[in-house]
Amino acid sequence: MNITWITRSFLDYRIPVYAELDNLCGHHFSLIYNAEVVPKRCQDRIHEILADRAIGLGGEIRLSGQKNAPISTVSRKGIRIPYQPNLLKTARETRPDVTVSDGFFQWTYAPLLLRFRNRIPHVMCYEPTKHTEKHAQFFRTWYRKFASRWIDHICCNGSLCKEYTMALGYPESRISTGQMAADSEQLAKDCLAIDDGDVRDFREKYGLQNKLVFLFVGRLVELKGLRQLLEAWNLANLDATLLLAGDGPERASLEEFCQQHNINAVFAGNIDYANIPIFYRAANCLVIPTLQDNWSLVVPEAMACGLPVASSIYNGCHPELVHPENGWIFDPYDTQGTAEVLKTIVANKANLPVMGAASRSIVASHTPKHAAAAIYNACQQAISHLSSHH
Length: 390
Fold this sequence. Notes:
The protein is of the alpha/beta class.
């Protein structure tokens, strides 16, 4: 089976999935991406795996007239489909039996056109949930419903995404789940390689000795719900430390809040991805109070490193990954409820290592190998669907 994945951009966590998918299809996997957007480290890694079957294109033009502007930096005020010269030609030259896309916008116009013009089966990997799309403009929703007729199978990241996809009117029989995975196996190895002495030095560096440490990893932005978390933390009056790995525009106001309310918080600033494992290794519990996330990759990462998880209900991955045996869920808008969860975690600190072991067990079924198998199966289903409707 020749599989061609057409994606404008990808990051480190996706590379192991591409590698596994390449193995599954007998090394007949091609990846087409925007060489002006994907970080060089990611391009180097994927070229080591796929060689000339990793195809980076340049010269993208946005319908707005802008060139090479990262779509993610622009507020979503309208539909901005980029045009990539030679994208269709390059895709056809890979002679795909099936194409794979990421979501309805960006470079997905190419797989949609190949399905419409050339009857090449099309699989879409999808992530949104009803919560993240509750304010979607009507024309976005209309376009998704219209374009779905040229999608033979949708592989969702989890149950909440599947629920939203079905709400768009897409048939359940052509929806599967399981396409999302973090590079959890490598992170687990990196964590195990850190010795206890390094952990002691790290905790001493940040003043964490003999403290119960809640870890947050991510951008310090409004949507991450950190102000709501700190309000609950203040109400709970916790004997613990909040360690924040990341930076962003909210940092100054969050630091001020912590100083005003005498909250024991450590702001570590931007951390290189390669240095993240020791943060997981030194913490006792991950906390993710996000107000809107399709699938927080830090959750499976932390789980692979043996941490229990306290997750917001607005995190799309919580039904699959956060269970009573390995964590807690909370509504960050419910300050009292969040405070009670935080107090429960502190009260149960002796049980956290056991819950962390449960995290490892749960995340073991959400690896790149499992994600690749889900996508490969979706490709088979797509080919079967199109051939039966010839």
